[in-house]
Each structure stands twice: as structure tokens, then as C-alpha cells.
Design goal:
With 132 residues, the protein is mostly helical. It is 70% helix and 0% strand. Helix 3 crosses helix 4. The radius of gyration is 25 Å and the shape is flat.
């Protein structure tokens, strides 16, 4: 707790660097990229793009990413119920994030029950981290 918050950033940096170094010697596994590099090596023309160019492409992408999910949300009950369920779960989770410091490290002495310092109250979040 006396080290401050900078050590967490260094930890994340070193874990990311290690992961990046491990991934460097690995070969590509995505089929489209492998086929494109193979065609380029053999001097063949790449396959045509299945999406149209220009405004029809934008219209297609908007239809697939915005209009179709909105239509499913309105017309399919299971999608609506699952969305409401997920929204409720996220609201409870984020309410816990807001309430934990008040419960375990309250600045108001009349409602303070656990009397934890900042480091000890931060450990309380590990329960949500392991459960979620």
C-alpha cells in the first residue's frame, strides 16, 4: 500500500511485454490471411471482396450492425428478456463497485462498521473478481 499506484502499471506492462514476446514466433492461423499470403507468393490475384464498394457497403454494414440487432430486440422475446437480464446483472455488479468503499471504508464514523484501511478494503474487490 505504501508503494502507490504506479507499481500496478508496471505489472501490467511487464505481463503485456511477456505475452507479446511469446506471440512473436507463432505463425499465422487465420485462414483468409494464410490464403492471401499463399496467393501473393504464387503470383495469383487475390479473391474479390464480398462486400460492395461505396454507399452500398456502408448501407450493408449499418443494416447488419444496427438495424438487424434492433429489429431482433423488438421482435424476438428471448433477445429482449436476455438483454434485460444482462442489464440487471451489470447494474447489480456496478452497484457493488460503488457500495463497497462506503461499506468497508466509510468516511462517516457513525456508519463505519468494518474500519478497514484503503489496502484492506481494496482486497474486498477480489471476491467480485473471482466470482465474475
Amino acid at each position: 500500500m505504501e508503494k502507490g499506484w504506479h507499481w500496478t502499471q508496471w505489472t501490467i506492462l511487464f505481463i503485456g511485454l511477456f505475452t507479446w514476446l511469446v506471440s512473436l514466433p507463432q505463425s499465422e492461423t487465420y485462414k483468409r490471411i494464410i490464403l492471401l499470403s499463399r496467393a501473393k507468393k504464387l503470383g495469383l490475384a487475390p479473391p474479390p471482396n464480398p462486400l460492395p464498394a461505396g454507399w452500398p457497403r456502408i448501407k450493408f454494414l449499418l443494416t447488419v450492425t444496427v438495424i438487424r440487432p434492433a429489429k431482433m430486440l423488438v421482435t424476438e422475446p428471448i433477445v429482449a428478456y436476455f438483454s434485460i437480464y444482462t442489464a440487471f446483472n451489470f447494474s447489480v455488479l456496478f452497484a457493488f463497485f460503488a457500495a463497497f468503499p462506503l461499506v468497508f471504508q466509510s468516511p462517516y464514523p457513525e456508519i463505519q462498521v468494518y474500519h478497514l484501511n484503503r489496502g484492506e478494503s481494496g482486497l474486498v474487490f477480489l471476491g467480485i473478481g473471482t466470482g465474475a
